[in-house]
Amino acid sequence: MISPGLIARVAILAVVASIVEIAAVSQVSIFGVSADLSPLVVMSIGLLAGSVSGAVTGFAIGLFLDLALVQTLGVSSLVYLVVGYWAGRLRELRDPQASLTPVLVGALATAVATGGYSVVQFLLGVDAPVSFLLVRQILTTILVNTVIALPVYAVVRRWLEPALPDDPRRRRRRAYTTGGLSPLTRA
Amino acid sequence: MYDKTVRRRRAVLGLLVALSLILLTAYFGEAAGGGLHAVQRGFMEVVSPIQDGASRALKPVRDLFGWFDDAFKARGQRDKLRKQLDQVRAQEIQYVAAARQAAQLRGLLRLDSRLKLSQYQPVAATVIGRSPTLWYSTVTVDHGSADGVRRNDPVIDGDGLVGKVTTVASDSAVITLITDQASGVSSKVNETGTVGVVQPAVGNPDDLLLQYVRRADQVRNGQTVVTAGTTSSRLDSVFPPGIPIGQVTHVDDQDILKSVHVAPFAQLRTFDYVQILRRGAGGAR
Predict the structure, then answer these.
(1) pLDDT bucket at A40, cuts 50 / 70 / 90
(2) Which residue of A has its CA nearest to B18?
(3) Over chain B, what is the mean pLDDT?
């Protein structure tokens, strides 16, 4: 069950992330492209809070961006909810614990988001040639997002941690490393 | 319990996907003045002030990152501009060299027509080597005996007398300049007809001396010295008459003779093209 505290924190995070994305991050050019915070934030929420939270947050952030940037409503929502749901399911099914997991998942989330957005735009009949430039832009965005994925994930985890439900597996690991369940202590 | 969770998750996913597709379809299908567009405009009006405030607040952060990006771009631009500069420099060098060559060739043509040197069937030659000494006393050109060049043929550039051929090979020749210590040119002051012998001033390649001028002869600064074209038993002149040599710069009075300093017209340090006047061709001497 998702607690009201988590909902509040996710909502605040979604609004702040969207505003920071629009007001600052999108205006900073790195290697000719801008970093895309949204898929990273959605991915982080999915990894930390699960598939439903990830999907809802993805939908909400997408809707916010589509409304604020006067884009076709529903496109970003659709793309980001897929990203959030997929990241959440990854956590629920595999629970990857490697420290570089957010980097890999962030790169894939960005690839799904940018690629998916482009595909939906093409399906809607946007008259743009599939040029080498577009592919290069997408690849560069993925690269830049890969670099910032870890710090973004760390910030999101720090913000959500107080409201996250206590994971039994995490509790078990914590007990083991602090000596509670260690065979050495029993000996 | 598990089934309920799965069902709820799938329901939420389906609902959100359906909502997205409905929004997308409705928005895409409606006119610009439709309801969803109006909602979007209203939302934008609400968000704009927040966005504006956030934009101002985050400007230092943006500038910081922008600075890094600008520095990176500036490096790329610098490298690109350096390449362009190198190309432009290379072009400029080519243009300047071409302009200088054209000026020299024009000068040669002017001198030819003015002095009516066509009777000597002049051969235009390019300098292919210079003596590396300070005096630049000899140069090598790319025409030789195969082109009818012979020893002692006079050589001019577009400004005046340069020297004479002293060594000939089949495809090249060495020209000894009038600044060489062994050189002596039978000359006269064009305005007064005062004759003498032009020899180099020791240690100054830009200065020539008109020697053996009597003290009584009237020679003044600015007068022009040309080849006399005469033949004497002591200094056999190989040069046609009237070829400009230089301009009088100052006159030293000695006991019974004057020493007249002459600045050569020919650009003896820098010329690239010369004309060899083939004495054997015209026969005039």
Answers:
(1) very high
(2) A78
(3) 83
Q: How confident is the model at residue B202 (pLDDT cuts 50, 70, 90)?
A: low
Gap between the Cα atoms of A4 and B141, Å rounded = 97
pLDDT in tens, A45-59: 999 988 999 999 999
Q: Mutation target for B interface from A59, A63, A147: give the one with most B CBs within 10 A.
A: A59
pLDDT at B34: 84
Mutate to test the interface with A, among B16, B25, B36, B40 (most CBs of A within 10 A): B16
**What tokens appear for A45 in the block?**
């929420």
For B114, the token pair is 């003015």
B224/B268 Cα distance (integer angstroms): 17
Residue range of the domain that includes B51? 2-57
Q: Give the nearest chain A residue to B59 (CA atoms).
A: A24
B131 alpha carbon, distance to own chain's centre: 22
Count of Cβ atoms closer than 10 Å to residue B282 Cβ: 15
Burial class (CB in 10 A: 0-12, 13-18, 19+), B121: middle
Query: Is the CB of B54 less than 8 angstroms away from the CB of A68?
Result: no
> What percent of chain B has a predicted confidence (pLDDT) above 70?
92
Q: Which CATH number fits domain A4-166: 3.90.1170.30, 1.10.220.10, 1.10.1760.20, 3.10.290.10?
A: 1.10.1760.20
- Partners of B68 on chain A (C-beta within 8 Å) are 30
Contact B158, B172 (CB under 8 A): no
Q: Is B139 left (phi over 0), alpha (psi -120 to 50) or beta?
A: beta
Q: A142-167 as b/e, with b when 16 or more CB fall inside 10 Å?
A: bebbbebbbebbeebeebbeebbeee
* CB of B75 less than 8 A from some CB of A: no
